[in-house]
Amino acid sequence: MFEQPVTNPVLIFAIAMVVFLIAPLIMAKLRIPGIIGLILAGVIIGPNGLGMLDRDPTIVLLGTVGLLYIIFIAGLEIDLDGFKKYRTRSLFFGSMSFTIPFILGTIVVYLLGYSTAAAILLGSLLGSHTLLAYPIASRIGITKNKSVTTTVGGTIMTDTLALLILAIVAGSTQGELTANFWFILLVSLALYVAAVLILVPIVAKFFFRTLSSEGALEFIFVMTVLFVSAYFATIAGLEPIIGAFLAGLALNRFISEQGTLMNRIKFVGNALFIPFFLLSVGMLMDIRILLSDPSAWLMAAVVVTLVISGKFLAAWIAGKIYHYSSDEIKLMFGLSIPQAAATLAATLVGYDLGLFNQATVNAVIVMILVTCMIGPYMVEVYARKIALKEEQRPYEPSEAPQRVLVPVANPKTIESLLELAFIIRGNSPEPLYTLSVAQGRGEEAPEKIIQAEKTLSKAVSYAAGAEVPIQMLTRVDPNITSGMIRAMQESRITTAVIGWNGKLSTPQRMFGGILDQLLERTNQMILVSKLGHPLNTTKRLVVIIPSGFDHKRAAYESIRTAKQLASQIGAIITVYVIHDETKSYEKMFDKVKPDVQLQVIGVPTWNELHHSFMPHLRKDDLVAVLSARRGTLAWHPQLERLPRVLAVAKPESFIMIYPPDREPVDLRGSRGTDVPRTMLSNKSYEE
């Protein structure tokens, strides 16, 4: 039906998008990091697999952009203050992480009959590493942990040394290893690093103060800095990944971790370019060589053994010297073992220079595939363990004023939503924000706005009776969720109270398209409520807490919200803690005001909750689930099932409380909060 490999650019892109969609879903079912699925997909559909796609210049281009993206984001997110604090550790670990695999690799490969230049080059590529699993640590929220900071800082050392040796070996092979060569290399390196770290901040400061006017322009500026820096790295005799990392360091102070721009950068990278890089890595594998040449398997076993033993030994030595825990040592190992960036560069150069044969290239690709599986798995497991073991933060109420938003669409639910919002708002001096999004454009917009304002007028009348000031917000947007998020950003909302009617648009989603995507695209506290009875008739607030919730940064804020709700409606609290220690939660509830009659019950499993506890809930109970966004700490698949269960359960009302997943937004500043990360369909936000 189609010629192979596919040459139609539209079809190539379509196949890639299908792979990017399906591969992570399959890996999720197998509980394997999604990035591994993309590498395996490259092996299967690549030129050495089924031959559907060729590793043509387009794939190489997009893959290279993805590689630079990974390194650039690592530079943006590195904790500079932490790096300064642990710079000695970073330099020591980076030296060990490079030197040990380098020495082991050089000796063993030389004994296998390789030339001196080939042995040194292969040893050097074993010493480098790519921060492929860093996004996992970032998602779990431990990027400021000393082990992560140490490993990320060590990347500067390992990749720089690996690429310098690559330049030296290439120069010696071509007969250019002269005094002039050394002088040019060292001088160009020093000038380049100084230029990026000095000039880029000056230009960035000028741009953000005087020229920046919109998000798209800011994003283009950042991309310009990234790729110009990467290109001039090649002019200086370095690999572009060094330029990408330095560009990230130079812009680190100008791009807020919780800001709009950072999320735009991550979205484009995670959705498009990084998957292309992983796909291109898999396409390098030639299974036929492995099947026909036993020496390739021997070489693959050698390099895999060397890189695993060398990287673990380096992490173990550094960890023991600096008194890191066993989990932190394993996390450092997981972060530093993936091979991709400098490894690929050195391998391809070595092959072009005739130092490596096809069997060696395939052995290195096997090593890349294996390490890219081990690394993300180790980081996923031990990052969560570290996050759960980190010392819990004491409860410190935010000094920033709380701003509560109530999106309204259904006039029948306005009053119940406003009642809940009044409780959540408490005594805040801030007005209560009500929002209506007019879904339309062009000539339809004025009529839609009139309809939206009519809906809001009822909310104003109801709030006036409670003497609560109202700030009406109306937005016109063809995409309802985008309009909601824009309003939240512009008004610097901290909490959104949203209604849900219990109906699902598709069986795969928790609430429906709009609410699901709103949770994915925001970091503020979100309360999704289905209120079937007046709140003031509630006698008991049943709080369901998943395992590990006490280690979330905003755990105290969620508990304060629950206790405030119970206090205002005069209800007692019964807490069900799923598969976790109850004493920790008892202490947390005791620390938070106001005082409410409380009972904490441990529930062994989710099945026990559904079969033994849920049937005993009463009709007038209000169930509050302290939930977690997908992929974050304390998330469990059962949390996505609960809304469906509660929608048909005996209690008429429930609230899903999603705490803020990052530090509270400083409302006195000028920046907004999060930014859209995905596009979505248009549906009513009270689906």
Automatic annotation (TrEMBL):
Protein name: Sodium:proton antiporter
Transmembrane regions: 6-28, 35-53, 59-78, 90-112, 118-136, 148-169, 181-203, 238-255, 267-291, 297-319, 331-351, 363-383
Membrane topology: Multi-pass membrane protein
Source organism superkingdom: Bacteria
CC per GO annotation: membrane
GO MF assignments: antiporter activity
A Pfam entry, by short name: Na_H_Exchanger
Keyword Transmembrane: yes
Gene Ontology terms describing biological process: proton transmembrane transport
Coiled-coil positions: none
Keyword terms: Antiport, Ion transport, Membrane, Transmembrane, Transmembrane helix, Transport
Domain Cation/H+ exchanger transmembrane: 18-381
